[in-house]
Amino acid sequence: MAKKSSGLFMFATAVCALVATAHGADATVRLRGQVGRRLDDCLKNNLMAVDVKYITDTFRRKSEFWHWDTEFWGKFMHSAVPFAQYTGDERFSRRIASGVDAVLSQQLPDGYIGNFREDLRGNLGWDVWGCKYTLLGLMMQYDRTREKRILDGARRLADWLMAQFPAKRPLHATGGYRGLASGSVLEPIIWLHRRTGEAKYLDFARYIVSELEEPADSPKLISSALAGVPAAKRPTGDPLWYKGGLKAYEMMSCYQGLLEYYETTGDRRCLDAARMTAENIAATEMNICGGMASEELWYGGASRQTEPCPSIQETCVSTTWMRLCQKLLALTGDPKWADFIERTFYNAYLAALSADGRVFAIYTPLAGMREEGRDQCWTTANCCNANGPRGFLAFMGSMLMSEQSAISVNQYAAATAIVPFGDAPEKLARFEIYTHYPQSNRVRIRYDGETEHDFTLKLRIPSWADNTKLELSIPEGRGLKKTDLGVVKVGEYFPVSRKWKPGDMVEMVFDMKVKAHELNGHAAFTRGPIVLARDCRFRDGDICEVLSAPFSTANVDFACVRSPNQGMRIVCSARLKLGHHQHRTATAEEPMPSEVKFCDYASAGNTWNASSAYRVWLPIECKGVRRR
Fold it and tell me: 477 burial class (0-12, 13-18, 19+ CB within 10 angstroms)?
């Protein structure tokens, strides 16, 4: 782990990215720059401001019949433990420990930890789902402290679960969504097996996998995926949405567990099913901002993203998607999963975080305005605020990964990173990443190790990054010897193999020319990984105004301009012909081009009120039909 910094909030913070790669190596990452400042705000004003006593008091009640408030503590723990470990903040660590004590104090003699009334435990509602997060929370703290009593508490809770299923009822018949919520307990059960080595937990994991696939009314997570059935077209088994099988967050949580199961058992079906489902989600559900799902359900959203929809891109869905992609990246080494994380993180995810880092929006629409989410479960908390900080862990966890003699760089943000590689624990590669990415198109990665090391540095070339230029700089005398590294291919890794010496540096220059995209008679614009949006604060016309026909994506030129200092990180300007704009010539119907400004989607709407209403997809005028 990184040593304690001289002050968490004196500069952009860091976190120990708990990344278990395919070969078990962990990277320690310190974020700096703009992304680091967003993390600072999230830690100070969201995560470290959580009232731990409040979110653990729910375990004292034993009268619940449906709700999911026992998840809040486990979600909090998943990000609080690694961030507390990095910062060395003893007061925060004590609050975390007191929360663990409070939860364990509510464990019943039979091992149950929860708040459901006795006749409904392990049956209706979200009880098993809550047990999943309680197990995750306990094991996060156990991994840090190695306190046997914490692991024993997790064991006893898991033993209680095993006594319920299948003796009293089948797991897939509990809760909602054809057992998806309950089936996601697979992930912590595998965690527990790894920490204890006890075969009974692996046996229970096998049972959970069978419940997700074998019964006639199960969600069929493996066979439907292997058959290529789209996520949104898998049978629900019930016309009521809340009993259906299409719930995005819960389905991806089950696939997360199946990946953990594959990693332990080598059952290839589980890896292939998770991979094929994620590929289908990316193709049919993910929108231009990397978000997905409407009202938290799959709905074929990729082709419908131009439709007005206020309840899309739930933060829980975005965070879980990044976690799933992070795991797939570690297991497969395919850089497309890093591409997907990048798109979601810089757009849908950061857009959901308020400007001060205090709260995460529940939904983040592509047009309109953002707002603080509603309270849930008769508490003053909600699922997305509890889940949101885990998104930073997924992003940072994917930044650098190692295997034997290779280190892959998957995300580009200003950072310091220490990466172990090879078989010897003393083999550490230290890097400084200098950049203002994604505002800037330049990234410098300097090897800052104390000794020379032979390894291959694999640089991800994003799928959007045509004409990327790479240059190797080697200290020579008082200057640098620079070498062009040649042609790169988008969507692949570019390997740089050498004996790396302190001061060796790779410089990457990306072509971030703005690209236009058309869909359903609408146009949207991206600059590198960033989606652009119109914002009312520019006061340059009606943001719903149509683009004049004929519209050609090939004839749109953008220029980066100075930000008006309203929290907009990237601002671009273009001259566009707008079909309803007032500026027209006196002798022709052809509209005059007008200057229109755009900002990055994460900055658009960041006042969270109507003063910064925004829009991503702009309608195109079509032969007398004026789309709005």
Answer: exposed
**For 90-112, what is each residue's pLDDT tens digit?**
999 999 999 999 999 999 999 99
Domain 403-509 has CATH 1.10.287: no
Return the pLDDT at 627: 44
Q: How far is CA 620 from CA 308, 555, 574, 617, 626, in A?
A: 15, 14, 16, 9, 8
Q: Place 495 in a pLDDT band, splitting at 50, 70 and 90.
A: very high
pLDDT band per the 50, 70, 90 thresholds, residue 21: very low
How does 418-445 read in b/e, with b if 16+ C-beta sit within 10 Å? bbbbbeeeebbbebbbbbebbbbbebbb
Contact predicate 191/135, CB 8 Å: yes
The whole model's pTM is what?
Answer: 0.93
Cβ–Cβ under 8 Å, residues 80 and 47 = yes
* The dihedral formed by the CA atoms of 445, 446, 447 and 448, expressed in degrees to the nearest 10: -130
| Strands (DSSP E) found in 345-492 | 367-368, 400-403, 406-409, 415-420, 428-435, 442-447, 453-460, 469-476, 479-484
Q: What ranges do the domains of the chain cover?
A: 285-398, 403-509, 515-619
Give me the percent of the chain exceeding a pLDDT of 90. 79
Please report how many Cα atoms fall inside a 13 Å half-sphere around the Cα of residue 38, on the Cβ side: 27
